[in-house]
């Protein structure tokens, strides 16, 4: 898996133009059953990809934390939200709360998340490949392909499944 992860930025960069064209066409004529197709491709991929062998998202990017995430996680630690923010978070250029450092402080050496049950919404949803109206997050997906081997494979499978000209 590590070799696959190391090669991903280069592979994503080689596919960038092709993927941009595909997503431009997808926005123009998304199939009516796109949500269904994405559910299927997402499930197929995650049946064969074990995130515990990867954790590249937790190691290299980290999520943004909503106010609800901060409330829930600080409660879990029995900390005041402000103390949690000071200990683990910073504000980024988009004014969002993000991790002070990556790899994420909550990631164990065994790739388990120590706050799994209360983890941020963005962690639960990453890489967003099963979300509705997937064509609306093409810019984000183009970035995620370079980080997440599952997202890369899902987009490759999409291009085969949905031939667009
Ligand atoms: S979501 Fe993607 S990047 Fe994150 S652990 Fe799973 S396969 Fe790896
Ligand atoms: S909170 Fe958990 S799932 Fe989210 S980035 Fe950190 S270790 Fe990964």
TrEMBL record:
Pfam families: CxxCxxCC. InterPro entries: Puta_zinc/iron-chelating_dom (IPR005358). This is YkgJ family cysteine cluster protein. It comes from Croceitalea vernalis.
């Amino acid at each position: 898996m590590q070799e696959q992860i190391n090669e991903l930025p280069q592979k994503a960069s080689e596919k960038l133009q092709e993927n941009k064209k595909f997503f431009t066409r997808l926005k123009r004529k998304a199939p009516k059953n796109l949500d269904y197709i994405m559910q299927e491709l997402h499930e197929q991929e995650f049946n064969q990809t074990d995130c515990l062998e990867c954790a590249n998202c937790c190691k290299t990017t980290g999520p943004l934390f909503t106010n609800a995430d901060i409330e829930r996680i600080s409660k879990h630690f029995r900390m005041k939200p402000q103390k949690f923010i000071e200990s683990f978070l910073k504000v980024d250029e988009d004014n969002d709360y993000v991790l002070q450092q990556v790899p994420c402080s909550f990631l164990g050496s065994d790739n388990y998340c120590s706050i799994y049950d209360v983890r941020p919404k963005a962690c639960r949803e990453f890489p967003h490949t099963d979300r509705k109206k997937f064509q609306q997050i093409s810019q984000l997906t183009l970035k995620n392909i370079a980080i997440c081997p599952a997202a890369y494979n899902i987009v490759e499978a999409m291009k085969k499944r949905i031939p667009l000209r």
